[in-house]
Design a protein that fits this description.
The chain is α/β, with parallel strands linked by helices. Helix content is about 25%, strand content about 25%. Bound molecules: zinc ion (ZN). Zinc ion binds next to loops.
Length: about 375
Amino acid sequence: MRLGVAAALVEGQVVPGDVEVEGGVVAAVGASPAGRAGLAVPGLIDVQVNGLAGVDFLTADAAGYQRARQAMAAAGVTAFLPTLVTSPADVCKAALQQVGLAQHAPGPRVLGAHLEGPFLSPSFKGAHDERWLRLPDTAAADELCDAGPVALMTVAPELAGGMDLVRHLVERGVVVSLGHTDADAAQAHAAYDAGARAVTHLFNAQRRFTARDPGVSGVALTRADVSVSLIADFVHLAPETVLAAWLAARHRLVLVTDAVSAAGQPPGAYPLGSREVVVDGHSARLADGTLAGSVLSLDQAVRNLASLGVPLADAVHAATAAPAALLRWPDLGTLHPGAPADMAVLDDGLEVVRTLVGGAEAFAAS
Ligand code: ZN
C-alpha cells in the first residue's frame, strides 16, 4: 500500500517521495511517483496523558479507552502511557488492570501506565489530592506495579525512603521521572545517578529554579542522561521558557500533553480523579486556580514548538524519538524501512490528516 504522500520525515531528514507500507511495516521511502501533498512523520508518543475526549483513565472502561484512542489518533498519536493521578490504592490498582486489558485492543498502542504518585511531595502536590499522597514505600510500589503494566513512575526522591524507591523501581525496569518534588540540586543528582531518567513537567510543581538553587529542573536541563518533559501549551510555560528548555535539552526534550478528560471538550466542569476541574478552552484548573493538567493535544504541542523557530524535524523528534528513547522502545518514534508503520500524515499547516498504527488506518480527516 502506498500512502500517497509528497515526502516523509526519515530519521530527521525530509525525503521526497511516497511511502510504501507492507505487512504493518514501512517497506520503502522516497518511492516514485510522489503523492501531491502531505508529509509522513513518525507517529507521536505521549508519555503523560490523564485522559481526553471526556475519558479519565483513572475510571475508564473498554469503551472509554476506545473513545480516547480515536481522539488520540486524530492528534497523530500512535502510542501513549495512560497516566494515573494520585488516588486510593484500590482505585489505582483497578485502573492499572484496565491499562493491561487496553494493551490488547487495536488503535494507538498502550505502552503501559505512567503512575504520577502517590509518592509525591505535599509541598508541590499541584492538583493531586493530598489525602492519598504517601511516603515512598517499596512494598506499596510493588503492589501497584504487580497490578498492571507500569512503564513510568513520577516520584519525589527527597522524601524519606525516596532514594531506595528510585533504586528499587529502576531495578524493576520501571522508568523513573522526578516530579512534584522539593529536591534540591544535590538530591536530584543523586536520584539521577541512581538511575532516574527524566523530569516531569519541567518548572511545574517542583522547587523553583533560582540563581543559586537550580533544583531538579536546573539539573535535568544540564545532564546528558536525563529527558526533559514539558507541557508546551504556553499556559504551563511561557514561550520563552519552552524555547530556553529546548536550547538546553535539544534531543532530550520530550513533549507531553498532561491532558485531562476535558481536552477536546467544550468549556465546563470535568472530573480529574476525585477532583473537579474547570476548563475554559485554554486551561484546566481546580476551583482555587491551580493548574490541573491541560487541554493540549500532542500535535498542537509540536506546532507550538515549531512556532518558536525550532526546526520541524526537531519539534517532531520531541514527540516521537525522544519519548521512545526514554521508554526504551527504539523501534517506535522513527520512520525508516523496516520500522513499524506507525505514522501521521501532516498537511502544510502541520495539521494531522491521517494516522496509521502498524499499517492500519486509525484516523483519516473527512
Ligand atoms: Zn503533575
